[in-house]
Amino acid sequence: MRKRMAALTLALCVGLSGCAVEKEEDGSLLGRAAELGEELVLLTVDGREVPAWRYLYWLAFTCDQIREKYKDSGLTLDWNAPVPGGTLADYAKDQALADTALYATVENWAERYGCALSERERAALAETWEEQAEIHGGEEAYLKELAGLGLDRLRSEELSRVGMLYAKLYDLCLTEGSELSGLLEDEDVDGLTVDRILIKAGEDREAAREKAAEVFSRLNSGENPAELFPALAAEGDDKAGPRTLLPGDGSLPQALEEAAKALEEGQYSGILESEEGFSILRRLASEGEALTGEVFDRLLQEAAEGARIQTAPAYDGLNAAAFDEALAVLRAENE
Questions:
Q1: Which residue has the higher pLDDT, 202 or 218?
Q2: N-term to C-term CA, the chain
Q3: Which of 2, 71, 221, 332 is the most buried (most CB within 10 A)?
Q4: Residues 6+ apart with CB under 8 A from 67
Q5: Strands, E assignment, 76-191
Q6: Would you call 162 helix, strand, or coil by DSSP?
Q7: Which domains are assigned to the chain?
Q8: How far is CA 304 from CA 50, 101, 102, 139, 333, in A?
């Protein structure tokens, strides 16, 4: 979850290419694409009201990510394609809801555990804005890019503020004697850290099997497999990097998790086959603080997934495919 939260925050800074548009007086592109008032309370998360623009931001972000993956794969995007639980459009809508709930849960936790930004931290938001504006060619150019995401300065800083609250909550969970650290005391931190080389099966499983054998041969013939492993992992299809597995967290298939447990620290496995493809695992040393962070992230994620979410009728009537198509047209018109 830590990687996921970081990825969402990063999206505010680097997910701007191809979106250089002017902000319109009659609402940002998000509200116009959805035909919704952007300040309308679209949903509540454990009682916290969430305006439509926040959800629509994450819906646009999710749709953009899906479009990019299909483009990279050379596949035709079909929002009506069936996926577990519904269609691809349903998946996009659900994923955006999960991201929205995660950010709202961070704010709810911040209130519950007494986390608030100091004046210095609020000033840092302004400094970060100025730095980003300079990177993107000045304030006017930066605002144009943000407009393509449905954001202005206030909205961008609001989302960044949630990211800062998350960091403060994490620091609090490491503070001995705090209420939040007490929440973690009874949790299971018996995890293990692994890195993985993954060759996805794709459409040609035998070709993937041969490629995995070739990679395994390169690893075995290398002068220093410990140094070579991260490079081979980066070349593979699992870009997550080293991760800490907690019992039953589903990060890896059960068979791979059991194989990882059987490894000694520093040892790597043979080629392990799963439905996804072919994996080679290497067990790494697990540090106490890293495990605590993983447990914190798990609890926060569970809180977001278990939150009481109530949606307005406008949410139920929102069609992700129509929204994405309308947003693409609006972006093109304003280039």
A1: 218
A2: 35
A3: 2
A4: 77, 324
A5: 82-83, 86-87
A6: helix
A7: 2-184+296-333 (1.10.4030), 192-285 (3.10.50.40)
A8: 14, 6, 5, 35, 37
